[in-house]
Amino acid sequence: MAKKKTVLRTLIILACVFVCLEIAGFAIEIFGLSKKSAAEGGPLSAGESLKELQAKNSLLTNRLKTFLPKGIFIVIDTAGNRLYVMHGQKVLKEVVVSCGSGDILEEPAGKRTWIFDTPRGEFNVTSKLVNPTWIKPDWAFIEEGDRPPANYSERIDNDSLGDYALGFGDGYFIHGTLYTILLGRNVTHGCVRVGDKDLKEVFQIVPMGGRIYIY
Amino acid sequence: MAVGTIAMKAEEIAKISEQNKLLENELALARTPASYMVINVQDQTISLKARGMTLKKWEIKSSKFWGRPIPSKTYKLVKKSALSQPKRPNITPGKEDIKDRKKTKDSATDLGVLELKDMPVHYRLSFENRIYISVRPKTKRFWPTILNIGKFISWFTYLPLKTLWLTIIKKDFTEIELVLPSEKEAQGIYWSFPDGHMTIICLPIKS
User: Fold this and answer.
1) For residue A124, what pLDDT is reported?
2) What is the DSSP string of A26-71?
3) Which of B32, B110, B120 is nearest to B74 (CA)?
4) What is the DSSP string of B132-184?
5) Mean pLDDT score, A51-80
6) Is the pTM above the cut of 0.90?
7) Of A177, A214, A204, A175, which is closest to residue A74 (Cα–Cα)?
8) Active-site residue among A16, A20, A99, A175?
9) Is A21 on the interface with B (CB under 8 A)?
10) CB nearest to B16's CB, from A54, A68, A108
């Protein structure tokens, strides 16, 4: 009985301490915050008038507009597997594509590792190819369980990339696919696969040097 | 009447000042080719931008703040953390499913790849200067709801204790909680937010 009472008393004391600490924390948050707000407050615009601020606002807005991409450009959403051909704010074409799988391939008994992500950021169309040939890199053989051939001709693949390809650097392309049923899924080795009909249109619309934004 | 007009003008000055600060920060980021995020709690939006152009925009359903108020400016994302971090699948060379993957017809099939659906819905974004943003979705599913309840309780129990401790050791922090309309949107933000990403955080102006 006495032991029970001691346990109960300890629990009550601990609960009281906990509540006190909580109250102290809340008090610091409420009073400390208002103090900080007051300290950081004051005029936001060190003496600038409303007119001056408005003038600065339109100047900054206009300056920001100068960075916007000019002409026709591409935006690729790797999460949604969508490609948008755009001009300014206008979407000229929306296409279902396949982007990088995010998979990792390690070379057996080797030191090389590949991560199959579609690169993100700002790029440019660096090449436009008709009937492109794929020179298969080492990973294409290793993935299939084969050894990369020493003979160059064994690396040539004329079928996989479709009828057109738009290069955007480092061996990455927007190209066609044999696996149209997988469009809309993240299955590629980093390139962006597009269906044949859509690819032809994208190829025709987007100029050489056109910007590509990938996110 | 005059007092009301002065108050309105002061409010407008504060608003435009804030907008100008944001624009100045954004101009610096738009000069570079890298994309950046703008978490504008005032407008209840999160935008992924590049060169001043909005690539993707998400809506914030509601938000909460705790701790030190922070000025609207650019912060660097240091770390993303989640209870279950998405794992990159490993390819086994020569394994049959590589070939199967190319033939599969079912769009719901798990292809052993990293997709949007694999991203977490509850996570925490840690920025420099001890700024933390917790993201959670509005959901009706059981486990995410349980997690949401846990987060709600911890907000009112853990944060006061953390505040007390950090005050004792003379440090402070900022905690922001963002609730998004759906799980998909929370996953979309996680996907689009790589580590090291520059982010403009804009909190509502305190009146």
Assistant:
1) 97
2) HHIIIIIHHHHHHHH-S-TTTT--HHHHHHHHHHHHHHHHTTSPPS
3) B32
4) EEEEEE---SHHHHHHHHHHHHHHHHHHHHHHHHHHHTT---EEEEEEES-HH
5) 95
6) no
7) A214
8) A175
9) yes
10) A54
